[in-house]
Amino acid sequence: MNRAKWKGPYIDPNLTKHIKFLQKKKSLPIISRNSTIIPKFIGLKFNVHTGKNFLEISVSKEMVGHKFGEFSPTRGRFSFKKKKKKKSK
C-alpha cells in the first residue's frame, strides 16, 4: 500500500542529518529500509542492512522514488544439494 501523497515521501530523520557529512565519507549505514530515495542521494553510496549484514548500494538516477529495501535482498539463493550415487553390488 502506498503512502498518502499529502504526507510526502518517508525519509528517516537521521538520514537527512548525515547528508552533509556523507559527501566526505565513503558510505553511510542505513537500517531504515523503508526510506525513499530522493534526488539528493544520486551518486552517493549507502550500506543497507539486510537483517544479517550490510550490502553496499550506489544510488543512480533510475532509483529515485524507490525504497532502499528494494535493492538489498534479504533472502539467500537456494539450490538443491546433489546426491551421491550409491554403489551397486
UniProtKB/TrEMBL annotation:
One Pfam family linked to the record: Ribosomal_S19
Keyword line: Mitochondrion, Ribonucleoprotein, Ribosomal protein, RNA-binding, rRNA-binding
Gene expressing this chain: rps19
BP term (GO), one: ribosomal small subunit assembly
Record organism: Pleurosigma inscriptura
Gene3D superfamilies: 30s Ribosomal Protein S19, Chain A (3.30.860.10)
Single GO cellular component term: mitochondrial small ribosomal subunit
SUPFAM superfamilies xref list: Ribosomal protein S19
Gene Ontology molecular-function annotations: rRNA binding; structural constituent of ribosome
Family statement: Belongs to the universal ribosomal protein uS19 family.
Listed name of the protein: Small ribosomal subunit protein uS19c
InterPro entries linked to this entry: Ribosomal_uS19, Ribosomal_uS19_bac-type, Ribosomal_uS19_CS, Ribosomal_uS19_SF
